[in-house]
Write a structure and sequence with these properties.
single chain, 289 residues, alpha/beta, six-stranded mixed sheet, 6 helices, 21% helix
Length: 289
């Protein structure tokens, strides 16, 4: 039984409510991005390992886009036989097959998925093929999980983490998600974006992005002045979530190798939330391979 539930506030703002928070309380949240589940280069065994961990930890899952690779549509210029899994090859109803396959894979974990964001791959399919893969999968998983969630989010949006302490005291952390843009940069690995995002999203306590297939977490510390002139420091946690797709492989050939890209980490990020001294603490743990 969940000690948390998910509520829809608007199209791209959702809320996860954690109940029964008290001293010693601890909760994990699984952050994923760029699963590219239907790609033959995706490590589905690693996906399953983390999903099983989430099941053991009763951890809500926030996915920030590109769960689908979906590059083998008839009109896709990137289409390649080598980039299609055997079970998807030669199917006339390609996008239907992708949703059916994802439904089977994720159904045992359906109640854990809180929000499914969209990435550039899903956005391209919606634009060129007229079907919303993320919405379709979210609807299927709701049937399996027997819950009102997962909800289909946006390319960017918010998940408000809401904590009920001893039934009367309430805390809230704002998690801003944005699938991502650009290439990340071979030197900065996208870290330079933290300064820009800190300015654009001042109300966010946590900022999560994917797209560049990098894994890092850091804190931007800001000074705040309260209504009565009280000064305090507040940390804004920035997280880049890696992928499960290994574009580099052996380094022999392929788009990533030909583009001069290095190998990238595979995996996810766990947000460890815990209550200590009347405060909710956030600790991001990189789980990469």
């Amino acid at each position: 039984m969940n000690d948390w539930c998910v509520e829809c506030i608007s199209q791209n703002v959702h809320r996860i409510v954690f109940d029964n928070v008290k001293n010693g309380w601890e909760q994990y949240v699984l952050l994923t991005a760029d699963r590219h589940h239907d790609s033959p280069k995706t490590n589905q065994k690693l996906e399953l390992m983390h999903l099983d961990m989430a099941l053991q930890r009763n951890a809500p899952i926030i996915d920030v886009g590109d769960l689908f690779d979906a590059m083998q549509g008839r009109e896709d210029r990137r289409r390649s036989k080598k980039e299609s899994r055997p079970e998807h090859a030669g199917e006339d109803n390609y996008f239907d097959v992708l949703v059916d396959d994802a439904e089977r894979f994720y159904a045992p974990y359906a109640r854990l998925f809180a929000m499914l964001g969209i990435g550039n791959h899903e956005a391209a399919v919606r634009k060129h093929a007229g079907t919303d893969l993320t919405y379709r999968l979210a609807r299927r998983l709701r049937e399996h999980g027997g819950k009102d969630w997962p909800y289909r989010g946006g390319y960017g949006g918010y998940v408000k983490l809401f904590f009920i302490v001893q039934k009367t005291v309430k805390h809230c952390l704002n998690l801003k998600y944005f699938h991502g843009s650009g290439g990340g940069g071979p030197v900065t690995r996208g870290v330079i974006q933290t300064n820009r995002r800190a300015v654009v999203f001042p109300d966010a306590d946590i900022i999560v992005s994917g797209h560049i297939h990098e894994a890092w977490a850091l804190a931007v510390t800001r000074e705040k002045c309260g209504p009565m002139g009280t000064l305090k420091r507040a940390n804004q946690i920035h997280v880049s979530v890696p992928s499960y797709k290994d574009d580099y492989d052996t380094g022999a050939e392929g788009w990533a190798v030909e583009s001069g890209m290095p190998p990238k980490p595979l995996g996810c990020v766990w947000l460890r939330l815990y209550f200590h001294k009347s405060k909710i603490h956030v600790h991001p743990d990189l789980d990469v391979y």
